[in-house]
Amino acid sequence: MDQCDPWWLARGLVAVLLLGWSTPGVAAAPEPTQAGVEESGASPSFSKGAVPFLTKHCYACHGNGKTKGDLTLDADRDERAVEKNRKVWENVLEMIRAGEMPPKNRPRPTPEETEVALLAIDGVLNKLDCSQPRNVGRVTLRRLNRVEYNNTIRDLVGIDFKPAADFPNDDVGYGFDNIGDVLSLSPLLFEKYLTAAESILGQAIVTDNTPKPTKSQLGGIRATEDAGGEKRGFGRFLHSIGSFRAQSYFDEGDYTLKVSVFGHQVGDQPVRAVIRINGEDIDEFDVPGDRAEPTRIERKVRIKTGTKTIAVTFLNPYTDPKNSDSDTNRRLLFLRGIEMDGPYNPPPQVFPETHQRIMTHQVGLAPRDAAHEIVSRFAARAFRRPVQPGEVDQLMKLYDKGEAEGERFEDCVRLVLEAVLVWPDFLYRVELDPRDAQAGSSYPVSEFELASRLSYFLWSSMPDETLLSLAGAGRLRGELDHQLQRMLKDPKAVAFVENFSGQWLTIRKLAYVAPDAKEFPEFDDELRAAMYRETELFFESILREDRSILDFLDADYSFVNERLAKHYGMSGVEGKEFRRVKLPANRGGILTHASILTLTSNPTRTSPVKRGKWVLDQLLNLPPPPPPPDVPEFPEAKRLTGSLRKVMEMHREQPICASCHKRMDPIGFAFENYDATGAWRDKDGAFLIDPSGELPGGQSFQGPAELKTILRGKKELFSRCLAEKMLTYALGRGLEYYDKCAVDKILEALNQNGDRFSVLMAEVVKSEPFQMRTATGEEP
């Protein structure tokens, strides 16, 4: 349901009276002179306010036995009947409000007739007694969106590599990407989940790869060039100073080095050799043996991990000068082989923190019992609640299957945990009705469900150990104020700044805005990033400093670096670092941020329509309807034949354009001194800029400063808008008419506490829709 319908219409009509703006299809409220409005400010009854309108304009097609479009209206002639057919009448309300009923080929009702009918229908649909128990709403089973998935994996596993980067984009509802109704699960996305789970745990869990001792004959032995040879039947030999060398990779540990050599003895000394590892002497020894009885040398060595060179070097070559027979006159060193046994006593394997976080278990447990402990702990954190024995038993079947197939312990556990990461209770924020809950009754959500509501609201991630411990002890509700303060001080609260402000203020769209390079050559990605960062830092300052929410409208400070300061025409700011600055008189509040002004412009020119619509949408929650399909095309800047204001005045003369543009355009023209990238200007081409305007109710202004004064003077509209937006984001659902009581209570607290941002957040968290849920009566 659109947030302006149905009870939002009542608030919209209040706005008409406060600001003098007309709602689409509804003229600015005249003095109540119509029959059915019995006293000023009172809603007309359905029989006196709506039935006459319906009789005159609707029953010809939807009454008196006619059911055009399978719609009959004349059977519902009193309030009780309308309440029973709420969905039908909500649609009727929207059709009348949008000007689609009666159709264009029928006589048109006067604005006064339309207003009275709308007030009468709205009065029935949105009749609430906030002192009585009422529907607090329920959230559709909500899938984690991409941001929430990344953050939850980071906090669950300890890996921050954003595995959801290649997931399909999340759909958006009510302006936010965490709305349960639109977060579907496609086959493609589920395939992505499977791949991500395997990748995540493949990085987090290290398989035990402690090397097993082996006996290895080293191959690839080479002799020093020109120092050796080979003799048939005897093998390789050295006749001059040189070495036999072999290279191999070794894991750290103790080894037994075995060298088998013999010599051809000539002269008074026996053959002598030395064993070296990477040039370091291990042992020097005589080789008295001959071919029949080779000398075997065994030495214990400790080797560090890496590639090593094992060398057996001949130390005392000799040639008998009295013997001229080259086969017998030289002392020779023969090598039979080099063998390495090991490694023994390898160092304990050092596991990464992610592995230790997941795989730690009690010492001395049998493998399956250890796996059961690991899986139970991991699943409880992943599901954000205690797990039931049956759930763990079901998961352990995967472990048993892997073990039966001879898989390693770590691989078996990894398989189970991959299943946890594609389990519905991980991918979705599951909230179940108590078994004894009656349909339509409202009940407090469990403490664990409250912990998740709180953490995903403030952190876009899972609850931490503190929240889960408090929930397990049944103490979270009693410590909400303290936990809210703690969580907002946590670095993870940057997620709230990025995700709420980025979507409420729509600055996420700045990434896709492309001002024309010829018209605005100074615009580049560096300036775009600076614009974005300014708005984030400004939002964060209001949050961290607990300022009034009204500072969003006209604060006299902001945050700039050198690049953005030059864009704003400010001096004295150098470097890439952002710093807080006092703004010049022509700037103040988010409405003059270059981010907002750029994303509400066209590539070649400003757009008063987009800027005005942005204010109505994001700051007042009074969005105009979509433009009709046959609206005439508006010319781009290069085809304008007069000032933009003049051309738009001509555009507004067309009846199908006038009703919406008279609300949007005056607001947008207040910011015409800012070009399509938010830089200040006095002229638009050859035309002097006139930022003045007059709202339909007669209030005039001479530029953005005076318009902001008008907006701040009507703070109830802005406060209600921000409260509605934040409650929508916190709940993950659109607001309904029955949420009006909760919003009113938030506004009352704001009004009594200086409109401080902390009060807004605390009241959202304490509100009935956030704390409670309405049961369906269906079996969980």
Q: What ranges have pLDDT less than 50 throughout 5 or more consecutive residues?
A: 1-41
Quote the distance from N terminus to C terminus: 26 Å
Mean pLDDT comes to 88
* Overall helicity: 40-55%
Strand content: 5-15%
Number of strands: 21
Structural category: alpha+beta
Quaternary structure type: single chain
Largest sheet: 6 strands, antiparallel
Structural topology:
Layout (H helix, E strand, L loop, with lengths): L6 H13 L26 H12 L1 H4 L16 H6 L1 H12 L13 H15 L16 E2 L2 H12 L29 H18 L9 E4 L4 E2 L4 E4 L3 E4 L3 E9 L2 E12 L6 E7 L2 E8 L7 E9 L2 E9 L17 E13 L8 H7 L7 H17 L5 H16 L4 H12 L3 H4 E2 L12 E3 L2 H12 L6 H9 L6 H10 L4 H11 L20 H20 L6 H4 L2 E4 L1 H6 L11 E4 L11 H6 L8 H12 L24 H9 L2 H15 L13 E2 L2 E2 L4 E2 L5 E2 L2 H10 L1 H17 L8 H13 L4 H10 L1 H4 E3 L6
Antiparallel strand pairs: 1-13, 2-12, 3-6, 4-5, 5-12, 6-11, 7-10, 7-12, 8-9, 8-11, 14-21, 15-16, 17-18, 19-20
Helix pairs in contact: 2-6, 5-6, 8-12, 10-11, 10-12, 11-12, 14-15, 17-18, 22-24, 23-24, 26-27, 26-28, 27-28
